[in-house]
Design goal:
mainly alpha; 6 helices; globular
């Protein structure tokens, strides 16, 4: 019964098509640890006491990552978070071993780059424009 309760929030979150920013770290921890246990049992058993121990560690990692992203002004995408979890759950062990599964979650956070100032054409500091230099020719 405990297994059903452990994964119930993840199943509900994925079925709605959205995962909240607050739920994502724990859901990610559960999904990743399930895949690690399935695909890398030796590593999993030598590293974690059980799935809850694994999930707790990865939840802490994702909570810290969320805080960093929020502080950097990044935006969380609940649809991408749900897609990330679905893809991680459905990934083959080959995808998991080769690191492809890590790319499933690359778009959960969008961190924009600062916009460049609009080009007004008269910055006065453009040393690369040699066509306007007065060379006396």
């Amino acid at each position: 019964m405990r297994l059903v309760l452990t994964f119930a929030p993840l199943a509900v979150a994925c079925s709605t098509g959205l995962v909240s920013e607050d739920a994502f770290p724990a859901d990610y921890g559960q999904a990743l640890c399930q895949k690690q246990q399935e695909c890398s049992r030796g590593y999993f058993e030598s590293t974690y006491a059980d799935r809850d121990h694994c999930a707790d560690q990865w939840t802490d990692v994702k909570v810290a990552e969320n805080e960093q992203n929020l502080n950097a002004g990044c935006e969380f995408d609940p649809e991408e978070a749900a897609r990330c979890l679905r893809n991680l759950q459905q990934a083959s062990c080959e995808d998991f071993y080769e690191g492809d599964a890590l790319q499933f979650c690359a778009d959960v956070w969008t961190c924009g780059t600062p916009e460049a100032p609009a080009d007004t054409g008269s910055s006065g500091n453009d040393t690369g424009d040699k066509g306007n230099s007065d060379t006396g020719a």
